[in-house]
Design brief:
By secondary structure, the chain is of the alpha+beta class. The protein has a domain of 108 residues: Jelly Rolls (Sandwich), CATH 2.60.120.10. It is built from eight helices and 17 strands. It has a five-stranded antiparallel β-sheet with strand order 9-10-17-12-15. A four-stranded antiparallel β-sheet has the order 1-8-3-6. The radius of gyration is 21 Å and the shape is globular.
Length: 341
């Protein structure tokens, strides 16, 4: 695959010309034949395919009790199949069969993992684009299963300090303590202390996502469509998904009395990410794993309701029969397990 067509493929759209050579090393030509099975449902994922001109792949899943699989999506030129294999080693949630022969390129999960482990920017740019796509699909699914309240509510906002966080304040957030000194120094130039003495909305469902938050003290309730879903404790990070995918908030987060937080704006996160800061890379890696876990859980939920599961490349889930809020909002905290180096 030449360098010029790379930008036309969504997950490669943020790759710089200087990084294209590294990306091209990942791409292996893989001509596909009609009837060829790329992978089967419930088998381990080991690769992703980027479909070329004229190529078509059907994605199918077998509902419980059914004898035949149901086609739930078709992937065509420029689209990807099996990208969740680049994130984790979970089992495929559907079967992919070539319905129209043509060219494709294959990326081995092991090769991509090696780039991630080396903290190569090209790997994390691809991963962030995958995160955006997963967010879009999960938001649509959440809306079908647990509709949001629609319009954002009034949120007067918290008191944001007119200075960056100090080294001592960075240390107060437990998951940051193991980070290298230089990473902490970069964070201290991007994080802003926030506090309140009252019950105060941090942000409201439906708001545009402009910041992520790290809870230093106090606790925060997560609310969707008027229903309290969880309480976050110190050490939790929340609100980052909306920063990554530029979507609207999927839930409201409200402090329960006095609380102290650190705020990271979207612009500052983007700055860290583009500078190659390992913290930003680890956050994207962490977010991608949680998003895949959310999606696999959603697939199982839909499957249990005798609906076809979402495709392994997750073109979207079938509408579930119930409106119970079984999908956890994307604003919930990520488990902060940051590598020390």
């Amino acid at each position: 695959m030449a360098e010029s067509p790379l930008k036309s493929i969504p997950i490669f759209s943020s790759i710089d010309p200087g990084e294209a050579t590294e990306l091209l090393k990942l791409l292996h030509p893989a001509p596909l034949e009609t009837g060829q099975v790329l992978f089967r449902e419930k088998t381990p994922g080991g690769a992703m395919w980027i479909l070329g001109d004229g190529t078509e792949v059907s994605i199918s899943a077998t509902p419980p009790g059914a004898k035949r699989p149901v086609v739930i999506a078709l992937a065509r030129q420029g689209e990807t199949v099996g990208e969740m294999a680049l994130i984790d080693e979970g089992a495929r949630s559907a079967t992919a069969v070539v319905t129209r022969a043509g060219p494709s390129h294959r990326i081995e999960a092991a090769d991509f993992k090696a780039l991630r482990s080396a903290f190569k920017p090209v790997a994390y740019k691809i991963l962030r684009q995958i995160c955006k796509e997963l967010c879009t699909r999960l938001r649509a699914t959440s809306e079908r299963i647990a509709p949001s309240s629609g319009q954002p509510a009034d949120a007067p906002g918290l008191v944001v300090a007119q200075r960056h966080a100090t080294a001592a304040e960075i240390e107060e957030f437990a998951p940051f303590r193991s980070l290298p000194h230089l990473v902490k120094l970069a964070l201290s130039q991007k994080l802003w202390p926030v506090h309140t003495d009252f019950d105060e909305p941090v942000f409201s469902e439906g708001d545009e996502g402009d910041s992520a938050y790290f809870l230093v003290s106090g606790d925060v309730s997560v609310v969707r469509n008027g229903q309290a879903l969880a309480t976050l404790q110190p050490g939790a990070m929340f609100g980052l998904i909306s920063v990554i995918d530029q979507g609207r908030r999927s839930a409201s987060c409200v402090t329960n009395g006095p609380a102290r937080l650190l705020r990271l704006s979207k612009a500052d996160f983007d700055s860290l990410f583009l500078s190659g800061n390992r913290f930003a890379f680890q956050i994207v890696d962490l977010a991608s794993r949680q998003l895949v876990a959310h999606l696999r859980a959603a697939n199982e939920m839909v499957r249990s309701r005798r609906q076809p599961a979402a495709a392994d490349n997750d073109f979207g889930l079938s509408e579930a029969a119930s409106s119970e809020p079984e999908i956890v909002p994307l604003e919930l905290d990520l488990e902060m397990e940051l590598a020390p180096s």
